[in-house]
Amino acid sequence: MLRNELSQTILEVKEITKRFGGVEALRGVSFKVNKGEVVGLLGDNGAGKSTLVRCISGIHPPDEGEILIAGKAVKLDSPMDARKAGIETVFQDLAIIPEFDVVQNLYLNREILSTNPVLRWLGWLDAKAMAKRSQKSLNRLSSRIPSLSEKIVNLSGGQRQAVAIARAVSWGAEIVIMDEPTAALGVEQSAQVNELIKLISSQGVAVLLISHNMQHIMETCDRAVVLYQGRSSADVAIRDVDKNALVSLITGASGSLLAESA
Ligand SMILES: Nc1ncnc2c1ncn2[C@@H]1O[C@H](COP(=O)(O)OP(=O)(O)OP(=O)(O)O)[C@@H](O)[C@H]1O
């Protein structure tokens, strides 16, 4: 049974430390995320959440510590390294181009070239193949995007999130990190994003969710990891806490609460 549990750990962050000059933004942070699990990454302003996400996304190399994917230590020197390791990050700006349509955004920087050798040589894209695969990615997310040829600029905030999440998943992500995915959304669209998160986790994709919205965390996450002044101060199952307890952990009022085995 222990072996089964271990084999389910998709991401492990081990004793990560990151300094910026004299500022120690992360001080030996450790936690695990299992396959298909939704874990909230919580912490007050300046606690170290963004720095930790940047370390896991290959943007900031940590000064000390290790990142393991499926039990194997990985060196993430660039966002491409992280992507190759199965880590996709959906940042708040979503990194989508509003003037491009859904398909163009799903295939940004990884367009499929035409199968015809001459057209391929000329750099022609296989629009049909891209549209087919895009539809598959979006179907997988049961999304309500009206049309693949719709420009992003015409989509709602929730639909844009769906496109960004679909792209992350269609790149074969084992773990998707989402930075405040519902911050700019209304109630109904937030609920749709929550549904998407639950859907991809039910398909085995792990999600690390940064949010200041306790309701969102309570509704969506299985577990929460709390950072306090650059340290992991709590690792709790959501079923064991309520909103007030989470807030106390974030503000440091409850002290440290680390699970024996996350
Ligand atoms: N590039 C940088 N250079 C210097 N200091 C930095 C840099 N990035 C982050 N820090 C510092 O590291 C600490 C952690 O910041 P970080 O942005 O990771 O926190 P956070 O939890 O994401 O906060 P917020 O919720 O406000 O975004 C802060 O003291 C911050 O000032």
Task: Describe the protein.
The chain contains 10 helices and 10 strands. By secondary structure, the protein is an alpha/beta fold. It has 2 domains: 176 residues, Rossmann fold (3-Layer(aba) Sandwich); 76 residues, no CATH class. A hairpin with a 2-residue loop joins strand 4 and strand 5. The structure holds adenosine-5'-triphosphate. Adenosine-5'-triphosphate (ATP) binds next to strand 2 and helix 2. Its EC number is 3.6.3.17. It comes from Paraglaciecola arctica BSs20135.
Main features:
disordered N terminus, 262 residues, four-stranded antiparallel β-sheet, 2 domains, six-stranded mixed β-sheet, binds adenosine-5'-triphosphate, alpha/beta, 34% helix, Rossmann fold
Runs in which pLDDT lies below 50 for 5 or more consecutive residues are 1-6
Strand order of the largest sheet: 6-7-8-3-9-10
CATH class of the largest domain: Alpha Beta
Structural class: alpha/beta
Shape: globular
Mean model confidence by pLDDT = 84
What is the count of structural domains? 2
In short, what is this structure?
The protein has 262 residues and is of the alpha/beta class. It contains 10 helices and 10 strands.
Topology:
Elements lengths: L1 H6 L1 E12 L2 E12 L3 E6 L5 H8 L7 E6 L2 E3 L4 H6 L2 E4 L11 H5 L10 H5 L5 H14 L16 H14 L4 E5 L7 H16 L3 E5 L3 H7 L2 E6 L2 E7 L5 H9 L11
Parallel strand pairs: 3-8, 3-9, 6-7, 7-8
Antiparallel strand pairs: 1-2, 1-4, 4-5, 9-10
Helix pairs in contact: 6-7, 7-8
The chain binds adenosine-5'-triphosphate (ATP).
